[in-house]
Design goal:
Bound molecules: zinc ion
Structural class: alpha/beta
Radius of gyration: 20 Å
Oligomer: single chain
Low-confidence stretches: none
Order of helices and strands: EEEHHEHEHEEHEHHEHEHHEHHEHEEH
Shape: globular
Number of strands: 14
Largest sheet: 9 strands, parallel
Number of helices: 14
Helix content: 25-40%
Length: 416
């Protein structure tokens, strides 16, 4: 990963050019429930009670509503500066678990949304087989997520054969609790060499405890011992790590996808960023549940979380890079190709050099100003593979996508 050049920031008549940002973790349908799970139902509300709300929303989607929600989401991502999205996609079937015809109908909706908007898509169909570490069957709300290994590999092969310049297809293992070991090994052995592998891991303390009880090791330790984890892998969250796990991930070359606004929203815990940077680990960001669609806010909260618990400032720096903004943008740029499968060198975000919050900016401080000064959007243009997808801060589908999204939301919210 160290052969990737450092970030080049340059000023042109159009504005400040920065690299395009990779969004390493997205569940598109969750855009429709952002802001709808913020009412206390129990003093002990947690990730697990949020998950019940999420399952109810997941149960309402069909290919048309998913396409409309994803199109709006991808327009918002492009306007915010994300040029690639890794879609960790697990709503595969009809609500009762019956496959659609074709079986890829929900995946197709995501591909169509990406193609319509021009965002690069790394589609990660999810293998989801069990309701817990104890091997229990999927619950009623999880049936539409499930596959056996054979059906999963059929879906994977169908989607992988459709890769094109703007589409990569990788594999997502939902989590260790949802994928038995033998299934994991069979799927990993069947994947083509170029396929990226993403997995949710160590997001919750209960997950760490269950894994210890059933598999005799913490989740990240178990994974590093049972799979050839390397630079093709992305570990999503990896919040709860001990010292040997931090060193082990860094050594493996895998990327950690940190999702700061979602992890804060869900009360997951805080990623041990400083120790991980000291170990030389690769990392990127994801908007995950889409309570925020802004690389600025993800990176800002990644740093602010560390400041709040250490009572110090300017934590995310590396030797030779004292600027926090530059360290953060470089971290994201370095992991992008390995995690997404795309060469993003022709992706750029252009910031409005005339914006008040960038007045007097230089190449040395423009990244710090972008991330730490204010909330006015200053993204003026976004280029994906050399094509301009956002002009004057707006995507051409801005209004159409919003109208279709509103209609889809009315349908989703009308279901009791
Ligand atoms: Zn996730």
């Amino acid at each position: 990963m160290h052969d990737v050049p450092a970030v080049h920031v340059r000023r042109t008549p159009a504005g400040w050019h920065l690299p395009g940002i990779a969004n390493l973790h997205s569940h598109a349908f969750q855009r429709a429930m952002a802001g709808l799970a913020e009412v206390q139902t129990d003093p002990a509300d947690s990730f697990w009670t949020w998950r019940d709300t999420m399952y109810r929303m997941a149960g309402r989607f069909d290919p048309d509503t998913l396409r409309a929600v994803a199109t709006q989401l991808y327009v918002e991502m492009l306007e915010a500066g994300y040029t690639t999205v890794c879609e960790f996609h697990y709503i595969h079937h009809a609500p009762d678990g019956t496959p659609y015809a074709p079986a890829s109908a929900m995946s197709d909706a995501l591909i169509e949304a990406a193609e319509a908007t021009g965002i690069r898509l790394t589609l990660l169909p999810v293998l989801y087989m069990r309701g817990g570490f104890d091997g229990r069957a999927l619950g009623a709300h999880q049936r539409r997520f499930g596959h056996d290994v054979e059906a999963y590999l059929r879906l994977f092969a169908d989607l992988h054969a459709r890769q094109h310049a703007g589409l990569r297809v990788g594999c997502a293992l939902h989590s260790l609790r949802a994928v038995p070991e033998d299934a994991m090994q069979t799927v990993l052995a069947a994947l083509p060499a170029d396929a990226r592998v993403h997995v949710h891991i160590a997001e919750q303390i209960a997950e760490v405890e269950d894994c210890l009880a059933v598999r005799g090791a913490r989740p990240v330790t178990w994974l590093l011992d049972h799979a050839q984890v390397d630079a093709r892998w992305t570990l999503v969250h990896a919040t709860h790590l001990d010292a040997s796990e931090i060193a082990g991930i860094a050594r493996s070359g895998a990327t950690v996808a940190i999702c700061p606004t979602t992890e804060a929203n869900l009360g997951d815990g805080l990623f041990p960023l400083r120790t991980y940077l000291d170990a030389g680990g690769a990392w990127g960001i994801g908007s995950d549940s889409h309570v925020s669609i802004s690389p600025v806010e993800e990176l800002r909260w990644l740093e602010y979380g560390q400041r709040l618990v250490t009572r110090r400032r300017n934590i995310a720096v590396t030797p030779g890079t004292p600027s926090v903004g530059r360290t953060l943008v470089e971290g994201v740029a370095r992991s992008a190709a390995a995690s997404t499968g795309f060469d993003m060198r022709d992706d750029h975000v252009v910031l409005d050099a005339e914006a008040a919050l960038l007045a007097g900016a230089t190449e040395h401080d423009v990244l710090d100003r972008w991330i730490f000064a204010g909330n006015r959007p200053v993204v003026r243009e976004v280029h994906v593979a050399g094509q301009t997808r956002v002009h004057d801060g707006r995507h051409p589908l801005h209004d159409v996508a919003a109208r279709d999204y509103a209609a889809a939301m009315h349908r989703l919210l009308a279901v009791s």
